Description:
Layout: H1 2-24, H2 30-55, H3 61-83, H4 88-95, H5 98-109, H6 116-134, H7 145-168, H8 174-193, H9 198-204, H10 208-236, H11 239-243, H12 245-259, H13 266-283
Helix pairs in contact: 1-10, 1-12, 2-3, 2-8, 2-10, 3-7, 3-8, 4-7, 5-7, 6-13, 8-10, 12-13
Amino acid sequence: MQNWLLLGGLTLIWGSSYILIKKSLIVFSPVEMASLRISLSFLACIPFLFSALKSIPKEKYPYILFVGLFGTGFPAFLFAFAMVHISSSVSGIINSLSPLFTVLTGLLLFGVAVTRTKMLGVLIGFLGALVLVLGKKDVNFKADLFYASLPVLATFCYGLNSNFVKRFFPATNALHVTAIAMSVMGIPAMLVLFSTDFVFKMQHAEGALFSFSCVCFLALFGTVIAWLLFYKLVQRTDALMAASVTYLIPIVALSWGLADGETLNFVQLLGMLLILAGVYFVGKRST
């Protein structure tokens, strides 16, 4: 039961992040938003960094570097650059590839066995994500092939990272893993941030303080706390169960849309039911 609660909490946080990202991009560019998000996440983790460094053996530091780069750093900037050139519909579908890449990297690189039930769950969940996106009346599939490949690479990073955490940090304090992972990209993100027009916009752009506040919430909840829950879920279950959160995220995002006056049609409802069925099969025997 606790595993499902972790999955639900993670889904709620990441699903709600989209509206914060939308408000952040009113003033900031995608690169500014991504680098600011990572920088603030790094600052939030500093109080836990020293205890984390003491608790994790030095020989595992290179592995932590890997987690920071592939779990947070690379995907954040890959999605940021892609968002300028591809639609949110394309991005949403590509993001749903994470469980599939989790299966493939786990099978080919880590020797993780995948049951037929879990594989069925992956396929049903991905089908549900497709149906949910296709059910939108204003769906837009405008995409540039190169920029569409960037989030594909990001989801590959997510899948690889999930298996990596499960293999090398199965019992490490999830808060310590999160703190060091965020620290890996903290200083590089700050360097990128202050090479942009961020300071000028904070001083002169209308609505900058509001967008900055949105990024603050995004960093604290959508990054630090979300990754803490994610790593905890990976450790308690398996990488695939944790990755299935990408199927559930669009449901929460759609719920925010309903609260904002949007409507729900039958096709979208069918997609939601397929996603829930897929996640059920993925999580079966994992609790």
